[in-house]
Amino acid sequence: MSRSLETFEPIEKGSVRMYHCGPTVYQRPHIGNYRAFLFADLLRRLFDQLGFDVIQVMNLTDVGHLVDDADDGEDKLEVQARKDQVDPWKLVEQVSEQFFTDLKALHVRPAHHYPRATDHIPEMIQVVQKLLEHEHAYQVGGNVYFDVHSFEKYGALSGNRIEDLEAGARLEVNDEKRHPADFALWKSDPKHIMKWESCFGPDGFPGWHVECSAMAMKYLGESFDIHTGGEDNIFPHHECEIAQSEGATGLPFVNLWMHTRFLRVDGGKMSKSLGNVYSLDDLVEKGFEVLDFRFLVLKAHYRGSLNFTWDALQSAAEGRKGLMDFRRRLEAACTQGKGGEEGSDIVDKAREEFQLAIAEDLNTSAALASVFDLRNHFLKRGLSFAEAKQALAFFNEVDDLFGLFPEAVETSSGLSDEEVEALIVARTQARSDKEWALADEIRDQLAEAKIVLEDGADGVRWHRS
């Protein structure tokens, strides 16, 4: 909100409470949605790594998000459910299941809470009642609206001024409202399928904005540390969250707001008409791994522009493969090598540069540059046993933050480490006996099993590709 870099100071020492705007579960999230969710995971992993006690909440919007993102039109869930000829409650379950499958594939650590809007209707009604009592809201029939003129800070996050928010391109004329920028806290519509009885009348459902306020405050308290989302959430969603939350409690709502920029595709917006609204499955069908996309997103600064192209994803895939290859070289050097405990200033320097870059507003691009510099240095000059141990420990710290590597090395060939070692000994003996055909046959067998051999002056080293 201050539009400047600030030192992070948690409300409660040693603890971080943060809320992330999650998906509206009417359609499977596309790759653009996942930029914000991956950033949330990066924050989570950072605070975990730094030893904070983290409480992380990501909501699932399953009612009240209307098609124009404002107060008019149909509910996105009901529109999609009608199109798919399925019950909206069933659609919620289907899309939610897809979402969690995607998160797992992306190595996203599960949040501590995934509240659904429909499970927290009483909490939302309570917030609306408080706003009516504090004269920040007014009721017209079965509808309740927030009075933006009653909240002096309205516009502080987005920079919008109330006097500029007249009816126009974004704000439709609504004779019930005192001002076009007033927003719905509770709506009444007998045609709405997902609806609840309340003190405001029958056939009601919550406004989109009040859902996040109610759920965030239930799990994190009336004031908490960090709130994230995409840049499209800044206005009106997050601006309205601040107004209604602080209007209800009289307390600061969130200390720090962090927003990701849009993910663009081929230099423009994603559009169904252009056929460029991609899911993770679309990437896999093109021969990529889901973690290649994770790397593409996280190696760019979260507040910077990011353009998705197939060439960019290919570059990310090659970069991630290079890091995985080097990590396996380090693992091999640590298990097969011998030496003293003397470390390397090069590794210490890389770790320091990495940590400084992450601490500076999560500059992941600069942080990863230090990792690649370290890799290139060792590939040029080799490394000792002690250096390999030190570098591997650093690489593990990097992956703990970025989550780029598979959980376990695949050994579909069935060759154990002992069998690989035995084959290498046999190949060495064959070469010593000048049985070149046998030596080549063994090397081909190892290559088929994805075992990479490196012949050097100090013997043969190997790692899995």
Which features characterize this protein?
3 domains, 465 residues, Rossmann fold, 5-stranded antiparallel beta sheet, single chain, Isoleucyl-tRNA Synthetase, Domain 1, elongated, alpha/beta
At a glance:
This protein is α/β, with parallel strands linked by helices and 465 residues long.
Question: Layout of helices and strands, plus pairs?
Answer:
Layout: E1 15-20, H1 31-49, E2 53-58, H2 76-84, H3 88-105, H4 121-133, E3 137-140, E4 143-146, E5 183-188, E6 196-198, E7 201-206, H5 208-220, E8 224-230, H6 234-249, E9 254-260, E10 263-265, H7 280-285, H8 290-298, E11 306-308, H9 310-336, H10 345-359, H11 364-381, H12 385-402, H13 417-432, H14 436-448, E12 451-456, E13 459-464
Parallel strand pairs: 1-2, 1-8, 8-9, 10-11
Antiparallel strand pairs: 3-4, 4-5, 5-7, 6-7, 12-13
How does this structure look, described?
The chain has 465 residues and is α/β, with parallel strands linked by helices. 45% of the residues lie in helices and 14% in strands. The protein has three domains: 15-260, HUPs (Rossmann fold, 3-Layer(aba) Sandwich), CATH 3.40.50.620; 281-402, Isoleucyl-tRNA Synthetase, Domain 1 (Orthogonal Bundle), CATH 1.10.730; 417-464, no CATH class. The protein has 14 helices and 13 strands. A five-stranded antiparallel beta sheet has the order 3-4-5-7-6. The chain has a four-stranded parallel beta sheet with strand order 2-1-8-9, with helices on both faces. Strand 8, helix 6 and strand 9 (254-260) form a beta-alpha-beta unit. It starts with 14 loop residues before the first strand and ends with a strand.
